[in-house]
Write a structure and sequence with these properties.
Elements lengths: L2 H21 L7 E2 H7 L6 H9 L11 E2 L16 H8 L12 H4 L4 H7 L8
Parallel strand pairs: 1-2
The chain binds a DNA duplex through helix 2, helix 3 and strand 2.
DNA sequence: ATCGTGACTGGGA
DNA sequence: ATCCCAGCCACGA
C-alpha cells in the first residue's frame, strides 16, 4: 500500500518542519533541539533534529539559534569556526553566562505550535 | 542487513 | 550535585 512512500514522505515532512521552524526563530532568541523535535510531532529524537540541521548548514537557516537544553552551543563545531556561532548570537543581542552558555531563561523561544498545544498548562514554577 | 555514531534528553544511581 | 545508561531517528560503513 505504498506504505513505503508514506514513510519517506513523513520523513521529508519532519525535515521540512525542522527547517521551517528553525527559520521562524526570532532574532535574538534561541530554542532547543528537543523543542523543535516536539513541535515536529516527536517528543524525543532531538538528535534527528541536529541531523536535519546538519543538512541545512548550507541553507540560509539560522541554525545558530538552535542550542541544546542546557544552552550550550553544541553545534558550534559545525559552523566552520567554533566561535562563529557565539559571535552570531552575540551580534543579535543574545547574552551568555560565565560558562559560555546562552541564558535560556532570557532568550528561550518556544514554537507557537507548542504554546498552542500546552493550552491549559499550569503557570510556571516560581 | 547489522553495527556504530551523532548538533539530544530524561531518568536513575 | 555529577555521572552513567537507555531511548529515539537517520545515515554511513
Amino acid at each position: 500500500m505504498k506504505r513505503k512512500i508514506q514513510s519517506d514522505r513523513k520523513k521529508k515532512d519532519f525535515f521540512d518542519k525542522v527547517y521551517d521552524l528553525t527559520a521562524k526563530i526570532p532574532k535574538g532568541k534561541v530554542t532547543t533541539y528537543g523543542l523543535i523535535a516536539e513541535a515536529c510531532g516527536i517528543r524525543s529524537s532531538a538528535r534527528t533534529v541536529g541531523w536535519a540541521l546538519n543538512g541545512a548548514q548550507e541553507s540560509n537557516l539560522p541554525c545558530h539559534r538552535v542550542v541544546n537544553r542546557n544552552g550550550t552551543l553544541t553545534g558550534r563545531v559545525h559552523f566552520g569556526d567554533p566561535n562563529l556561532m557565539e559571535e552570531l548570537l552575540r551580534s543579535e543581542g543574545v547574552e551568555f553566562d560565565d560558562d559560555g552558555n546562552v541564558i535560556m531563561q532570557k532568550h528561550l523561544w518556544i514554537p507557537p505550535i507548542l504554546e498552542r498545544r500546552k493550552k491549559k498548562q499550569k503557570k510556571s514554577r516560581s
